[in-house]
Amino acid sequence: MSVMTATRSAGIPQGRPFTVDDLEAMPDDGNRYELIDGMLVVSPAPGTRHQKILFQLAVALNAVCPNGLHVFPAPFAVRMTSTTELQPDVLVAREEDLTEKLLSAAPVLAVEVLLPSSVINDLNNKKAAYERMGVPSYWVVDPQAPSIVVFELVDGRYEQAAEVKDSDVLSVERPFPVRIVPRELLGTLAS
């Protein structure tokens, strides 16, 4: 993951924050391009464990997702302003907030699956951005030492509500009742 500010490189804006219009001009090169308050965040293509957990988590959430809410794996954009567009690895959105192309309101759940290059960004910059957006629940999943940390919005600030590791069971009520075992998200990759 790298953070870019405006420079004189070809096609990259100079002297101003990046906008969602600039994202449209980014190459389709396998990287993920996101914006946090006008700063471009570039993440490399994820690996096997990351993708397995992302898929398994989306399937598990979708299996118990109530009517009126929808589960989406990345890439699916959350665009709150012209200078902030994020793509959580998994999100849960209210049906009425969806457009055909993206989510224009805070999701009820945003999940980031850590990459070695994304740890600082996911635990700091993205967490702060989701907090400002008013995302009620934010989960961080570590695929290397299977674990899930749950943050819940309380009086406008995230508080850690749970942390489970390996074969422990995560049992939450928000955004809807679900039980998840981190190690099981890896399927046969856990062995």
UniProtKB/TrEMBL annotation:
Keyword Hydrolase included in the entry's annotation: yes
Residue ranges occupied by any Putative restriction endonuclease domain in the UniProt entry: 21-177
Swiss-Prot/TrEMBL keywords: Endonuclease, Hydrolase, Nuclease
Superkingdom of source: Bacteria
Provenance organism: Actinophytocola glycyrrhizae
Entry keyword Protein biosynthesis: no
Record protein name field: Uma2 family endonuclease
GO molecular function: endonuclease activity
